[in-house]
Design a protein that fits this description.
heterodimer; A: 326 residues; alpha/beta; 11 helices; globular; B: 500 residues; five-stranded parallel beta sheet; 15 strands
Chain lengths: 326, 500
């Protein structure tokens, strides 16, 4: 049976509200910021929560942590890294003035902003964005906030001033030493621990391997460490169980029991293995998409990239490649 | 007046429903059961004895006047049949397909004492499908009461409650967390069992009743139940969010890649259309040899989806026997026809790792039935030393659900010890004006039970708000000319009689 004719003929009087992108900023050739008009969400959002976004009707649902919210302007901010098909397509299509097909949230338990007097907020690469609201909340709570951010190299650094403004101390780390200290964020955390023996809490957000390394650094010092996990999700409401993670030997759902968990209890190897669930499909989707873009943009042999470039472009991206490891 | 029918004069054989051939259908997502043709429906309608004190109406959770609509079919007044069904059930095309009729209306049909019972579900579906094909909808002009009703969750419970409250003249808004309304009907039940076009048609009927659907809205987190009552001006709220938290296996290997819940598999495949990957962006894991654990309707759906995605072999692992299997008889039958291999009295012990974090097989143990447990079913107990292994590369678990925690986390509503919402006999929660029903109250159950709960909650809401149905419904059904809207003649202010 075909669908009711009426549904197709009649204009839908209750069309979905458009989730309008009011501003966009590009931090590098892979990382970009989207500011989305959603007054209700801007009012409800708390540090540590995330949204699920669909860029178009045939799109997939991807979880993105809320990097900032402006209750006065009625906007939320997302920082996205173009790694797979969806995020690259969004990088191409999501310009200011366009709209996303679906944005739902704020999801997850808000971060617990405790009464620790000295807090280290660690952001690795893209993780700088989601850890920012927590740093700001700790600062507003009167804590002494030490910011540690890490990037592969200088020109990937973003939000330095914004982040610095809510920190009492600020340590930038780059793999190649082109900005701040040379080293990983773990070196920044070690430095902070050396300077301050009385750190009450560490919040670390970034690629799993970085969060795992941070947990290893703080464990001998017995410093409470919280990480925000971002496993593969579908609904984000606890319904599918795709985002299950192992914490302290128990199975928890990152979407409704998290996304924040005690870093010393998280089984990061399990998380990293589960993040590779769809590696084959992700690669296929990206290849197919890259192919279709090439057909549109550069027909003919002159426009084609050399085989070397091509294989690089099509290599399966590490989801957090840009966000350096710890 | 026709001669009174007796068990001897009616057609003795239950009219079979045509189905797609099992060999071909296991490769496509087109509906398996094709539905009756006109002459088949008329023949089956003849089998109803039109009991004066019908047991089937009592057996129906929403008390459809079953002999009433069947009489109309026999009289070839098909529109009349539709009108009778929609008095109590706005969603006949859905319920005719997914209700477990054998334990409800058909289970108590007196014809069934000697012959096969009347195929009430198939007749209901036939009427529902005809209504969709003809564009019928029963939308009376309704005098607004000024009450504003919020409904949380657009699944069967929410839809049923929304329909009743809209018919009672309330301004109804349904909130849905997903990007499309329909709840489990959309994300859970696959197209070959309940086509999306049918759900969309029924939802469109609700919209014509004036119900607003607000998708992408996670109640509890975007705004709370409390704020709906206190700040957003809702006079009453119904919570029908579903159980929505899959129960886990809790055996070694259950976090390996290739192990997923039936909810995840079905959502990816149905709502997100992963079966058409990469034309749709959502991927779905593809197993060649799939083991599905559990034997309920969800498990049947998951198994049959796997076949259609291209699995070579699909196994069903269930710790009890076929007799205790909770699935609808027709679903088990269909699954069997399509080549699902059932392993009754087997329980998984461990999922085996291929060394790279993926599934390579499963170890199970044989079970036998012992004494009855609290559910009245005989408790399965493991047979010592009966472990066996078999290879598979994907494991889907469909072993029930637990309470979804979001409403509990974000409101002060009373919960029971298992985390479900606590309600009284009228489905009222611990907060004034807030009602709840469906799986979030009872734990996982059926679509029609959820719809029954939605309707019951609507009755309680009306009592709470002081709405008497007779005051508002159908009162001003026929009024003067109102011109045309979207090509619909509004002269009677009664959309119901207008064919689109």
């Amino acid at each position: 049976m075909t669908g009711p004719k009426a549904a197709r003929l009649m204009p839908d009087p209750h069309q979905q509200p458009a989730f309008k992108i009011v501003a966009r900023e590009d931090f590098s050739d892979a990382t970009y910021l989207l500011e989305i008009h959603h007054p209700l969400m801007a009012r409800a959002a708390k540090p540590g929560q995330f949204v699920i976004v669909m860029s178009h009707e045939h799109g997939e649902r991807i979880p993105l942590t809320i990097a900032d919210f402006d209750r006065v302007k009625g906007t939320i901010t997302l920082v996205v890294q173009a790694v797979g098909k969806t995020t690259r397509e969004m990088q191409r299509d999501c310009t200011a003035g366009t709209a996303l097909y679906a944005v739902v949230g704020p999801m997850g338990l808000p971060s617990h902003i405790g009464n620790a007097r000295k807090v280290v907020c660690v952001g690795g690469g893209l993780g700088v964005a989601p850890v920012f609201p927590q740093a700001r909340a700790f600062k507003e709570n009167g804590a002494h906030v030490i910011g540690v951010v890490g990037f592969r190299t200088r020109n990937l650094v973003f939000w330095e001033d914004k982040f610095r403004s809510c920190c009492d101390e600020f340590i930038v780390c780059t793999d190649d030493g082109s900005a701040g200290i040379r080293g990983f964020v773990t070196d920044g955390v070690k430095l902070a621990i050396q300077r301050h023996p009385d750190i009450g809490e560490v919040v670390a957000i970034g690629p799993p391997v970085m969060m795992k390394a941070c947990a290893a650094v703080t464990r001998p010092h017995n410093i409470k460490t919280v990480v925000s996990l971002n496993p593969i999700m579908v609904d984000g409401t606890g319904m599918c169980g795709g985002c299950r993670v192992k914490v302290g030997g128990q199975v928890r759902f990152a979407c409704v029991d998290g996304p924040d968990f005690d870093a010393h209890q998280v089984d990061f190897d399990d998380l990293m293995s589960r993040l590779r669930r769809f590696a084959r499909e992700e690669k296929a989707a990206l290849e197919r998409w890259a192919e279709s873009c090439r057909m549109k943009i550069a027909p003919g042999p002159l426009g084609s990239p050399s085989p070397a470039e091509e294989s690089e472009a099509l290599a399966l991206p590490d989801p957090f490649e840009e966000a350096q490891g710890g | 007046m026709a001669k009174k029918k007796t068990i001897r004069t009616i057609p003795q054989e239950r009219t079979p429903m045509r189905e797609q051939d099992p060999r071909g259908r296991a490769k496509n997502f087109t509906e398996v059961a094709c539905g009756y043709r006109l002459e088949e429906a008329l023949n089956e309608a003849e089998r109803c004895l039109l009991c004066p004190d019908p047991a089937c109406v009592e057996g129906c959770p929403v008390t459809i006047d079953i002999p009433g609509f069947i009489r109309k079919i026999s009289a070839k007044d098909f529109r009349g049949a539709y009108d009778i069904i929609t008095d109590t059930n706005l969603l006949p095309a859905i319920c005719g397909r997914v209700c477990p009729q054998e334990t409800q209306c058909e289970g108590v049909c007196p014809v069934g004492e000697t012959l096969e019972p009347v195929a009430i579900g198939r007749l209901e579906r036939w009427v529902g499908d005809l209504a969709i094909a003809e564009g019928w909808s029963n939308i009376p002009y309704i005098e607004p009461t000024g009450f504003k009703i919020g409904i949380v969750g657009s699944g069967p419970a929410g839809m049923a409650c929304a329909a009743d409250m809209a018919k009672a003249g309330c301004d109804v808004t349904v909130y849905e967390a997903f990007h499309q309304p329909g709840g489990v009907l959309k994300y859970g039940i696959p197209d070959f069992r309940l086509p999306n076009t049918v759900i969309d048609a029924e939802i469109e009927n609700l919209r014509r009743l004036g119900v607003r659907f607000e998708c992408n809205t996670l109640v509890g987190r975007l705004f709370t139940i409390e704020s709906m009552i206190e700040a957003m001006g809702f006079h009453a709220v119904f919570i029908g969010t579903g159980a929505g938290y899959p129960a886990l296996l809790g055996i070694p290997g259950d976090s390996l890649n290739g192990v997923l819940s039936a909810n995840e598999l079905l959502t990816r495949c149905n709502l997100m259309v992963a079966r058409e990957f990469p034309n749709y962006d959502t991927p779905v894991p593809l197993g060649r040899h799939v083991a599905v654990i559990g034997s309920g309707n969800t498990a049947m759906d998951a198994m049959r989806v796997c076949l259609r995605l291209g699995a070579q072999k699909v196994h069903c692992i269930y710790r009890r026997t076929r007799a205790e299997s909770p699935a609808r008889a027709e679903e088990t039958h269909h699954a069997e026809e399509e080549g699902i291999e059932f392993h009754w009295l087997a329980n998984p012990v461990e999922i085996l790792d291929d060394g790279g974090g993926n599934v390579r097989g499963m170890r199970c143990i044989r079970m036998e039935l012992g004494e009855p447990d609290e559910s009245g079913r005989r408790r399965p107990v493991p047979v010592a030393g009966s472990e066996f292994e078999f290879p598979c590369d994907m494991v889907v678990f469909a072993i029930g659900t637990q309470a979804n925690p979001i409403i509990g986390q974000t409101s002060k509503l009373g919960l029971n010890k298992r985390g479900y919402l606590e309600v009284d006999a009228n489905l009222a929660t611990s907060m004034a004006g807030v009602f709840a029903g469906g799986d979030i109250v009872t734990g996982a159950a059926t679509v029609i039970e959820a719809m029954g709960a939605g309707r019951k909650a609507a009755r309680s809401m009306k009592a709470y708000l002081g709405i008497r149905d007779t005051d508002v419904v159908y009162q001003a059904e026929r009024r003067g000319s109102a011109g045309k809207l979207f090509g619909i003649d509004l002269t009677e202010r009664n959309f119901a009689r207008v064919r689109l």
